[in-house]
Amino acid sequence: MKQGIFTILTNQPLTDTVYRMVLKGDTSAITAPGQFVNIKLDGLYLRRPISVCDCVDGELTLVYKVVGKGTEQMSTMSVGEQLDVLTGLGNGYDTALAGSHALLLGGGVGVPPLYMLAKTLIAQGKTVSVVLGFNTKNEVFYEQEFKALGANVTVTTVDGSYGVKGFVTDALPASYDYFFTCGPEPMLKAVYKNTVTEGQFSFEERMGCGFGACMGCSCKTVTGYKRICKDGPVLTKEEILWDA
Amino acid sequence: MGRLTVNLCGVELDNPIIPASGTFGYGYEFAELYDINMLGSFSFKGTTKEPRFGNPTPRIAECPMGMINAVGLQNPGVEKVIAEELPKMRQHFHKKVMANVSGFSVEDYAYTCERLNGEEDIGWFEVNVSCPNVHGGGMSFGTSPEAAAEVTAAVRKVTDKPLLIKLSPNVTDIVSIAKACEAAGADGISLINTLLGMRIDLKTKKPVIANKMGGFSGSAIFPVAVRMVYQVAGAVNIPVVGMGGVSSAEDVIEMMLAGATAVEVGAANLIDPFVCKTIIEELPRVMDKYGIQNLSDVIGGAHHG
Ligand SMILES: Cc1cc2nc3c(=O)[nH]c(=O)nc-3n(C[C@H](O)[C@H](O)[C@H](O)COP(=O)(O)OP(=O)(O)OC[C@H]3O[C@@H](n4cnc5c(N)ncnc54)[C@H](O)[C@@H]3O)c2cc1C
Ligand SMILES: Cc1cc2nc3c(=O)[nH]c(=O)nc-3n(C[C@H](O)[C@H](O)[C@H](O)COP(=O)(O)O)c2cc1C
Ligand code: FES
Description:
The structure holds two protein chains of two kinds.
Chain A: E1 2-13, E2 18-24, E3 36-40, E4 48-51, E5 54-56, E6 59-65, H1 69-75, E7 82-89, E8 101-107, H2 112-123, E9 127-134, H3 143-149, E10 152-157, E11 164-165, E12 178-182, H4 185-194, E13 199-202, E14 218-221, E15 224-227, E16 234-236
Parallel strand pairs in A: 8-9, 8-12, 9-10, 10-11, 12-13
Antiparallel strand pairs in A: 1-2, 1-7, 2-6, 3-4, 3-7, 5-6, 13-16, 14-15
Chain B: E1 6-8, E2 11-13, E3 17-19, H1 28-31, E4 60-63, E5 66-69, H2 78-90, E6 97-101, H3 106-116, E7 122-128, H4 145-158, E8 163-166, H5 174-183, E9 188-191, E10 195-198, E11 200-201, E12 206-207, E13 213-217, H6 222-233, E14 240-243, H7 249-258, E15 260-265, H8 268-271, H9 275-289
Parallel strand pairs in B: 3-15, 6-7, 7-8, 8-9, 9-14, 14-15
Antiparallel strand pairs in B: 1-2, 4-5, 5-13, 10-13, 11-12
Helix pairs in contact in B: 3-4, 4-5, 6-7, 7-9
The structure holds flavin-adenine dinucleotide, flavin mononucleotide and FE2/S2 (inorganic) cluster (FES).
């Protein structure tokens, strides 16, 4: 973990409610896809956790949805403004466990961390299939970005206005040997039920600190309690205990 | 003796800054960031007789200038603390640590303190009486002078180490409770624990926290804490450890003027993990600004004249 001051390079909408922010700063603490950062915002007491979407040479990309005060404030920030950010938080996805054909399943703002994950897996010479789930056509983002990485991309929308109609679990490919997922909890539960291989899940929880100090984010797992912020946010399929 | 040195119940502290229980774990996360031996001490996570998972999540809610937590005293239990956490802690921290202890019966408190008493590097016990008494209809020990005194007396029997009783602010007369603890053998009073609070989400129209209510802390509670520290310090003849909303060197001096011998920093560590380091580094400059030579000179300063 590191604390750093980051400067906004770009901050632009991808859809009506989802924005992409690129920040410049010391990203050396970020060591794995699926990790997150925790952002201090003026006038708000707690930091806001946001997944690392991409990270190259001191440039950190975040993709966030405006859902409340903090994300609303982020969306109004301009190029050149600075943010106090804790980086390198969480365990991230372990790509060493993947076989040769990984399936990535993302729902809504669960999609962003899968981008750096896809990039990492492809760089390791693995085949990557991605299923991105959204509610409706005008909420779709990052389809082209994943394609540009060389992933096989399928988009699903709940109302059928774009891509395959239904949920990500309605568009699972016939074959894959490992999966990674991030999204809202009902989606994660559906993925748990409908997948046939081992895999990794990224969870969300309300956080006090984001770095393991307060026990605000604990959950029960097969191997005892874990802090989503420090021992997670990524858990393997076999360690998950639902509703515990 | 440096300018920041204070003496807490016979144990010298290089400075009065002590991260508060529950916001610093056993120190490891912070030891990754800075040398935690620069702290006066720290109060480790509230430890109970049995392991506790704590409350369901969500356990955290944001407030203007503060937060509510309902962690529910999650901890691995005293045996595991002795066998695993303290040995690990010793690799990073080489000073006297404050042992924060919780319980749900008088016997629990005494048992846990007796088990920890043999640990050389425990400099003080800080007994948190904000917990519900399972044999007393669930009322917190800290809400009655008799129950708080009973816990104090029971722990006093099992340890000769300095004994601080950590009081709950959720009471009508904190002074009478502090005095009862002093009479029962406490060596010091620590205050304040969190204020009972609650938030409701307008979107779901339900409480934000699964446990509905929780402990409110952070900058917002600072004035309440200063007032209570002032009242208690003015009424007892034992040292007071002040806390509640402290986040700067100025806040530390204000707490000490109210009567605190040492000052704990809680929620602020969660927002700015370097806050205690920053405070310690800032103190000499802020002392110069206010013409303070030695920090120990300001303790209780607001009570005089
Ligand atoms: C590990 C992790 C990674 C995340 N990655 C992303 C991401 O890449 N993109 C994205 O858009 N969102 C992400 N989120 C969700 C994001 O943290 C919340 O949407 C954000 O905190 C909301 O803040 P707000 O002030 O706008 O909302 P408010 O509702 O005003 O926030 C009030 C409080 O609740 C907390 N909170 C609200 N919603 C959530 C939530 N879903 N999870 C955790 N805390 C919440 C806030 O942090 C704040 O403390 C992630 C959450 C976690 C835990
Ligand atoms: C997340 C969290 C966990 C806490 N856990 C404990 C605990 O285990 N034992 C205890 O005595 N106090 C506990 N407290 C209370 C703090 O030690 C402190 O008394 C209180 O938060 C007021 O200080 P602050 O405003 O600086 O946070 C906890 C506070 C927080 C925020
Ligand atoms: S949010 Fe503090 S331990 Fe996870």
